[in-house]
Q: What sequence folds into this?
């Protein structure tokens, strides 16, 4: 997925071919990540990618987080809180705004699943 993101500045994606390739990669990655969400770094890597990705290619992270088992959902909240603290400290406002949106979305998904 990161290779596709790196290429976005260099290719004409007016036909959305790259975004479709990315979407297929995202589906595969999220399926693998769901199966291994408890492993060190998996959830944090995904959250950091979602915070730093500038093209709006990641479309399913919120749904992924909302479908996590409770222990992994709690891990995601802790990781996201750490990312938010880092972004605040470094005054990276754009990424901070994305991280805060991600956290809000995650809480909304969790609330929807518990009703």
A:
């Amino acid at each position: 997925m990161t290779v596709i993101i790196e290429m976005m500045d260099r290719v004409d994606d007016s036909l959305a071919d790259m975004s479709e390739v990315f979407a297929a990669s995202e589906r595969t990655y999220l399926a693998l990540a769901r199966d291994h969400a408890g492993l060190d770094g998996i959830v944090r890597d995904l959250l950091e990618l979602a915070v730093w990705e500038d093209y709006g290619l990641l479309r399913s992270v919120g749904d992924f987080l909302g479908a996590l088992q409770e222990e992994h959902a709690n891990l995601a909240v802790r990781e996201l809180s750490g990312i938010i603290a880092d972004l605040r400290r470094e005054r990276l406002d754009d990424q901070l705004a994305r991280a805060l949106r991600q956290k809000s979305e995650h809480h909304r998904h969790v609330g929807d699943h518990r009703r």
Notes: The two ends are 34 Å apart (CA to CA). The CA atoms of residues 28 and 88 lie 32 Å apart. The helical segments are 2-7, 17-35, 42-52, 61-66, 70-90, 93-114.
